[in-house]
Amino acid sequence: MVVKRDEFAQRRRAMGFTQEGLAEALTVDRSTVVRWESGRGDPQPFQMPRLALLLQVTAAELVDLLAPVPANVPILPWQTPVALNDAGPGALGAVPDPAGIGSAMMLADGEVRVGCRTSGGRIIFVTMPRRALLRSAAGAAGAAVLPGLATGPEPGPQLVLSPDVHPVENLRQLRKSLVACDNVLGPRQIVASSQEHVRLIQQLRREASGRDRLNLMQVQAEYAEFCSWLFQDGGDHRAAQYWADRAVDWSTSAGDHDLTVYITARKAQLAGDMRESLDAVDLADAAQRIAPPQSRLMALGAVYGAHGHALLGDELACQRAYDQALELVSVPSETGANRGHWLNAAYVEAQRARSWAVLGQYEAAATGFDQAIRALPASFRRDRGVYLARSAGAQLHATGPERAAATASEALSIASGTGSARIFAELASLDGKLQPWSAVAEVAEFREALDSVMLHEV
C-alpha cells in the first residue's frame, strides 16, 4: 500500500481548497494533486514557492508535508496510469521489455511517459511514477534497464560560468549549446539541465540590479521558451504551456518585444500540436498583428496559423498563409532578425507538407517531406525523425505499406535515441493503420521493432 500524505491533504482542506481548486490555482491537472497526496509524485522545484504561498506554510514546512514515501513501500505501475490519448487504458499491468524502453520520456512532477502496447494491439501512451517504472524494470530484467532514467537524464553541458565573461553572456552561450544538443540528443537528455539554468538565473537576479537584472530577466525568458519547447517535443503539453506562459510574462517584463512575438507564435505551434485549431489560428493572428512588418516573426505566425486552418479543413486559407510566409522569408529582413532567423523556405514547405497530409492530399505531402528531408542539415537529427515519421503516414496512402513501413523504421531509430514524443506519436498512429498489412515483411519488421521499445499490457 502506498503511504498517503495525509498532513498535506489536511492542510489543503484547512486552507479551503478542493483538489480541483488547488490544481486550478497551480495551473496543473487534478490528477497531479492526487499523485502528490498519494505519494506517487512530487512537485517540481519551480512549483514549490507558489504551493507554499497557497497553503500558507514556509518552505521547510512544505517539505515536511511532502515527506517522501519510504523506499520499501512498493508502488505498482498499474495503480495510477493515465492515458495521453483519447481512449482510457483501463487497468494496466505494464512490464518493461528487458531490452530497454526507448519510448520513455521524463515529464514534470517526477513522472515518466512511455508507450504501451495493449492486449488488443493498440499503442497508447501512459504516465507513471519514475520509481515505479524503475522497480518494474528491475523486477523484469534483474536490473534497471532504462538508460538515462535510473539516475536521471544524462546532463547537458556543465553549468559552469566563466569568471571572465559576464553571466548574461555565459548563460546565452550555454543555451546555444543546449539548443544544439537538443536536435541531436532530443529533449529527455537536457530538460533537467535547462530547468536548472532557470533556477540559477533566478538566484542571480536576486543579487543584481538595474540593467543587469533586466538582462537576466530576458535570458530567463529565453530559457523558459526553450523549456516549453523541450516539454512540447517530449509530449508533456501541460508543462509546455506552463513554461510558454512564464516566458511571455518574463519577456514582457524585460521589454523584449520581439521575443514576446516569437513566443506567441510558438504558442500557436503548440496549439497546433495539441490539435486546438482555433487557438492555433488566433494565437498566430495575434503574433502577426504585433510582429514587425515584413519580418521573419510575421512569417512564423503565418506558418503556424496555416496549420491551424488545415486542422479546420480550410484549404484555401491554409495555402494563402503558407504563400504569405514564403513571400516574407524570400525578402531579407532587418527587423526581428535575431528571432526566427532559422525560418526559411525549406521549413515553410515542410510545414505545408504536414498540412497537406491533414487535408488528405497525401501525394503532395509525401513529395513535400522528401524535399524537406533532403534540405535538412545533418545535425538536425531529431527534426529528420519527425519528418520521416510524418512522411511515412503520407506514404501509406500515396505509395503503399512497404515504403511507409521502411520509412517508419528509419524514424523509429531516431525516436528511440532522442525520446521525441512527436515522433513516437506519429509512429503509434501509423502502427494502427498498418495492422491490416501485418503479414508484409517490411510492416512486420517495423511493428516488431516498435514493440521492442514499448511496454506491454499483461
How is the secondary structure organized here?
Blueprint: H1 6-14, H2 19-26, H3 30-37, H4 48-55, H5 59-65, E1 82-83, E2 94-95, E3 105-106, E4 111-117, E5 123-129, H6 130-141, H7 167-185, H8 191-207, H9 210-233, H10 237-254, H11 257-273, H12 277-290, H13 296-311, H14 315-329, H15 345-358, H16 362-375, H17 381-398, H18 401-418, H19 421-434, H20 441-451, E6 455-457
Parallel strand pairs: 4-6
Antiparallel strand pairs: 1-5, 2-6, 3-4, 4-5
Helix pairs in contact: 2-3, 7-9, 8-9, 9-10, 9-11, 10-11, 11-12, 11-13, 12-13, 13-14, 13-15, 14-15, 15-16, 16-17, 17-18, 17-19, 18-19, 18-20
Domain HTH cro/C1-type: 8-62
Protein name: HTH cro/C1-type domain-containing protein
InterPro entries: Cro/C1-type_HTH (IPR001387), Lambda_DNA-bd_dom_sf (IPR010982), TPR-like_helical_dom_sf (IPR011990)
Q: What structural class do the secondary elements suggest?
A: mainly alpha
* Main CATH class of the domain at 6-65: Mainly Alpha
Write the CATH fold name of the domain at 6-65.
Answer: 434 Repressor (Amino-terminal Domain)
Q: Which blocks of ≥5 consecutive residues have pLDDT under 50? A: 69-100, 135-160
Strand proportion, as a percent range, falls in: 5-15%
| H/E element order | HHHHHEEEEEHHHHHHHHHHHHHHHE
Give the tally of β-strands: 6
CATH superfamily of the domain at 6-65: lambda repressor-like DNA-binding domains
